[in-house]
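Ticket #4471: structure output looks truncated?

Reporter: J.K.
Steps to reproduce: submitted the chain below (139 residues) through the standard prediction queue, then opened the result file.
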Amino acid sequence: MNHYVHGIHVENRPDLYTTPSLEDLTEMFGNLLDQETARIFIAELDDECVGYAGATLHQSAPTVLTHADSLIGLDQLAVAPLGRRHGVAAALLEAVRDAGREAGCRRLLTEVWDFNEEALSFYEAAGFLPMKHRLEQSL
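Returned output as attached by the reporter:
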């Protein structure tokens, strides 16, 4: 499942992203599942896995400049072609929202590359608003 979302990143930013082996992905997700703050959701259609979402709970203490914060970060959302246009992504997103609410989070955050226009459209339709701009410059 990971290649459905990660492949877009590798294709558009090969300077940043690699193509991991199945063994490396298995280890990465195994380590993620060991974390108490991690949340993984699997979507199935007709007993076949068609998507997943990975999220992480975050708590921050107040500082001189900021309030305390609690949020759930949507780290990955991938849907196989078979699951697209069936509400799979929306259901996974709602599962992440529910997990955040259950954990007492006040916000849901995610990041999307500008080149991922399909994801940007999905998140905008789901009610997400731009929060800040992250800029880069090659040196």
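Triage note (M.O.): checked the attachment and the full token line is present. The longest helix spans residues 88-102.
Status: closed, working as intended.
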